[in-house]
Design brief:
Layout (H helix, E strand, L loop, with lengths): L4 E5 L4 H10 L3 E5 L10 H8 L7 E6 L4 H10 L4 E4 L5 H11 L1 E7 L5 H8 L5 E7 L11 H8 L6 E3 L8 H8 L3 E4 L4 E3 L2 E2 L1 H15 L2
Parallel strand pairs: 1-2, 1-8, 2-3, 3-4, 4-5, 5-6, 6-7, 7-8
Antiparallel strand pairs: 9-10
Helix pairs in contact: 1-8, 3-4, 7-8
C-alpha cells in the first residue's frame, strides 16, 4: 500500500502551518466559509501559503460560492486547489476548475446513496479527488468506515477520508478504507477553531504508524 497523504485543515496561524508541515503534512487547508470558526481572510491565508516549502499543497475550502465571488477569491488566494463543500454539481465543478485549476469535491457519506453519489461524479474529469465526510464538514462526525470500504474499490478518483478522525482512530480508519489521503480539522484542536500542536504531531505519527509494514 502506498503512503497515506495527510491534510491538516482549518489553519489560521503561521506557527500552526509550519508545525503541521514539520510533522509531515502534505497539504494545508484554509477555510473561506465565513460562518465557520476556522474562517480566514483570503489575503491572510495567502500570507500563510508564502511560508510553505516546495511540494506542500495549499487547499482553499469553499461552499456554494457564486462564480464571480469564487473568481475574486481565487485571485486573492490562488491555492493549488479548492475543496467544494456545498451542493455543487459536476457542471459547477467544471466551471470553477476552469477558473482556479485543481478541484476536490466533498461528499457527505450516506450508506443508502453512496453508490449513486460516486457514480454521479465518476466521469467528472475536472475533479482531482473526492473527499468523503461524515457531515457537511468540520463537525467532527465520523462515518461508517466498514460501510464505505467496499465502494472504494474501483473508484475513478483518489479518495480522501475525513470526518471525526483523531490520533486515536485514524489508524483503524486507514486499515479499513485504505484511502489515498486523510483530512483532519477538529480532531487536532484544543478547542473549536484552535489547533493543538501535540495533537497535530500525534495525528501525523499515527498515520505513519498505520502505513508501516
Amino acid at each position: 500500500m502506498s503512503r497515506t497523504r495527510i491534510k491538516i485543515c482549518g489553519l489560521k496561524t503561521p506557527e500552526d502551518a509550519l508545525w503541521a508541515v514539520e510533522c509531515g503534512a502534505d497539504a494545508l487547508g484554509f477555510v473561506f466559509v465565513e460562518s465557520s470558526p476556522r474562517f480566514i481572510e483570503p489575503e491572510r491565508a495567502w500570507d500563510l501559503v508564502s511560508y510553505l516549502p516546495p511540494f506542500v499543497s495549499s487547499v482553499g475550502l469553499v461552499a456554494d460560492t457564486k462564480p464571480g465571488v469564487f473568481s475574486s477569491l481565487a485571485e486573492r488566494c490562488p491555492c493549488d486547489c479548492f475543496q467544494l463543500h456545498g451542493r455543487e454539481t459536476p457542471d459547477d465543478a467544471r466551471a470553477l476548475a476552469a477558473v482556479a485549476g485543481g478541484v476536490i469535491k466533498a461528499l457527505r457519506f450516506d450508506a443508502e446513496t453512496v453508490e449513486a453519489d460516486l457514480r454521479r461524479w465518476a466521469d467528472a474529469e475536472s475533479v482531482e479527488a473526492l473527499l468523503m465526510d461524515g457531515s457537511t464538514g468540520g463537525q467532527g462526525t465520523a462515518l461508517d468506515w466498514a460501510a464505505l470500504a467496499p465502494h472504494v474499490v474501483g473508484m475513478h478518483h483518489p479518495l480522501i477520508l475525513a470526518g471525526g478522525l483523531t490520533p486515536e482512530n485514524v489508524g483503524e480508519a486507514i486499515a479499513t478504507v485504505q484511502p489515498y489521503a486523510v483530512d483532519v480539522s477538529s480532531g487536532v484542536e484544543r478547542r473549536r477553531g484552535e489547533k493543538d500542536s501535540d495533537l497535530i504531531a500525534a495525528f501525523c505519527e499515527a498515520v505513519r504508524a498505520a502505513d508501516a509494514p
